[in-house]
TrEMBL record:
It comes from the Bacteria. This is ABC transporter. InterPro entries: AAA+_ATPase, ABC_AA/LPS_Transport, ABC_transporter-like_ATP-bd, BCA_ABC_TP_C, P-loop_NTPase. Keywords: ATP-binding, Nucleotide-binding, Transport. Residues 17-257 form the ABC transporter domain.
Length: 260
């Protein structure tokens, strides 16, 4: 029987996320065509491209919201192509959305506590939470990680927009995820809120890898190790942030040649 160390070493030998020939059709329209992509455990990657490039459809395929028409998706070595979203969540995959999906009539802490409980084994228990409960402590730690301790008892409806985005990150971190998909977390944020977001993302535990979709390249390129550019449902170019930022084709196609 393999030791814990041997199992961890074996887990590190596989990719966190691996797509092979993923295609997604909507009738006669190909939203994604032959996407092949590998992301290592702990890697942080940006997926960039103009509107209609296929970025959100890519996320929907990875999460199981819209399974691929063809191709395979593996998560830490396991084929999850046909798994429903909840089974992927149980295996450690999380996602944020462009449109907030929060309980506006509940407090910040209550939202985070429910997020922790929802991915726990005791999620169906009717026992009320006690301060010594592990889930309560986990929620308190997440409050601190996303800089929301001062507003823990405010209703979500009372939060500033940027704070709601921070709360979404806390929910994505609930239950010890292995990989997170961030869908335009900087959209609509002020410069100050963007700085807060950068600080939170850069402080995430190193073992948690993520893919970020983001129109703001100045945000995306400051939190990732690698970049995948998409165009018309296909992978257009891949490289390190500095390579993508200085690439003439990227500047011409996505930035109008104005980004220095």
């Amino acid at each position: 029987m393999a030791s814990v160390a041997e199992r961890l070493q074996a887990a590190g030998a596989v990719n966190a996320l691996e797509l092979r020939g993923v295609t997604r059709m909507f009738g006669a329209l190909a939203a994604l065509t032959d996407i092949t992509l590998s992301v290592r455990p702990g890697e942080r990657r940006a997926v960039l491209g103009s509107n209609g490039a296929g970025k959100t459809t890519l996320f929907n395929c990875i999460t199981g919201d819209f399974p691929p028409t063809s191709g395979t998706i593996r998560f830490f070595g396991e084929d999850v192509t046909d798994f429903p979203p909840q089974d992927r969540i149980r295996r450690g995959l999380r996602r944020t959305y462009q449109i907030s999906q929060l309980f506006a009539g509940m407090t910040v802490f209550e939202n985070i506590y429910l997020g922790c409980r929802g991915v726990s084994r005791g999620r169906f228990s009717m026992r009320p939470p006690r301060r010594a409960d592990a889930l309560v402590q986990a929620a308190e730690e997440l409050l601190d990680a996303v800089h929301l301790v001062p507003v823990r008892d405010l209703l979500v409806a009372e939060l500033a927009y940027g704070q709601q985005r921070q709360l979404e990150i806390a929910l994505a971190l609930a239950g010890a995820p292995r990989f997170i998909l961030f869908d335009e977390p900087a959209a609509g944020l002020s410069p100050t809120e963007r700085s807060e977001l950068l600080e939170i993302l850069n402080a995430l535990p190193p073992h948690i890898g993520f893919i970020i979709i983001e129109h703001d390249m100045d945000v995306a390129l400051r939190v990732v190790d690698s970049v995948t550019m998409m165009h018309n449902g296909r992978i257009f170019k891949e490289g390190r942030p500095e390579e993508i930022e200085s690439d003439p084709e990227v500047q011409e196609l996505y930035l109008g040649g104005a980004h220095a």
